[in-house]
Amino acid sequence: MTAQLETVGTPTEEQQGRSAARRTGPPAGFTFALASAVLAFSMMQTLLVPALPVLAAQLGVNAATVGWTLTAYLLSGAVAAPVIGSLGDRFGHRRVLIAAMLVFVAGAALAGLSGSFAVMLIGRVLQGSATASFPLAVAIVRAHLVGRDQAAAIGWLSGTLGLGAGFALVVGGLVTDLLGWPWLFALGGALGLLSVGLVAWRVPASEQGEPAPQDWPGIALLVVTLLPLLLVVSQGASWGWGTPLVIGLAALAAVGLVALILVERTRPHPLIDPKLFTSRALAATNALTLFLGFVPYAFYVGLPVLLQAASGGIGHDLGVTATGMALLPGAVLVFLGGRLAPWLLGRLSGRGTASLSLALMAAGGVGIGILPGSLAAIIGFFCLIGLGNGIGFAVVAELIAGHAPRDGLGAALGVNGVLRTVGSAFGTPIATLMLTTVALAAGGAPTAGTFQALFVMAAAVSLLGAALAFLIPGRPRRDA
User: Fold this and answer.
1) Number of folded domains in the chain?
2) Which domain holds residue 439?
3) What b/e string do you get for 53-69 counting C-beta neighbours within 10 Å, with b at 16 or more?
4) Over the stretch 40-75, which tens digit does the pLDDT of each residue have?
5) Residues 236 and 382 in one domain
6) Are residues 288 and 404 part of one domain?
7) What is the pTM for the complete model shown?
């Protein structure tokens, strides 16, 4: 899809406004407005996690079923991100961002006011539209900022992405204990409404792309690929990895992926640009994103178990809120890592910065693996993991934005967001499987060895990602 540029005659009013914005800079509060949308999305990823037992009891479902409140958001967002990103490329990123956040708010209202679990799930599916907030926000930044200002804004957005998910673990427990679970959706909806107002007020209109036809075959095949894949990843452990259902879903996902690749190569305006996987820079960066999504979730799963286990053994006997407070410094470091990334990119190559981010995460994993009995060590080394993750999010966004074509940037970042989601989706069941398998081998209760195996595995995956980063060529392109 090519931006609508006139080769003859007077530039359109939209183009003149965009050019003026790039010369004079966007209004004050521009980046904050975009970050508010990213914060609303990222918090709703984990805000419900502390409330899952309460939701199960009050809505009359079991522990496995209540997990669908997280899975529904994940599945919906994975499909929505590239589709909505593509719509942003065609109809204007600001306009589509506002529409996506309004759907998010409607979903929050539906889920919070629902009296049944089924209606709540519908609300969560609607909330998944906000998954596109990050790729749309980065595309808007690329359209209105240049140079250091652009890099700094992407750092803010990337840091907010990680900060929201970690901060929500603390807030979710407090809100559930003090007010009740419906207020979690009220909080999410309020943040979504705030972001709509701020974006409408402080973000200039984006240039509208060429009205190309929608790639309906690509959308259908994307759904056929992603839904079975994420169902296998998120539910395989509870359904049984060797059951016909799981094997059939895995086969369907594989067939869907092959068909998606073949069909998209023939489409004049593909939803998934084949260059995202044939270009060395984009393919390596997208692969790296899987690692950045996977590694933190090994700790999101393992550390609460370790911190809340009885203190007579390896655990620390912390409550839910205290556990969230212990993890909060690491979440803050995710934000600071995003802010640090532009400084690092000014001194290192993109691949060097990406490799450093994963090396920091590996060091954190090794540290926690060696000293799982020390609360101070856990907090300190988890901060290293958060710092590395924040740097990684920011550098990946820069690399995708630097190598993807401008007229398809929203869709490219949306696909990258899907891969981050897939990586995170793999992290949760694999970490859970390791904890249960190693614990059973040790007699049924988690031991120091149980947690060490998990955290060392995460460190090894981080090191593998650090090596993969060197496949990324050169520095990311920056627009003048």
Assistant:
1) 3
2) 273-475
3) ebbbeebebeeeebbbb
4) 999 998 888 788 778 888 888 876 678 788 878 888
5) no
6) yes
7) 0.78
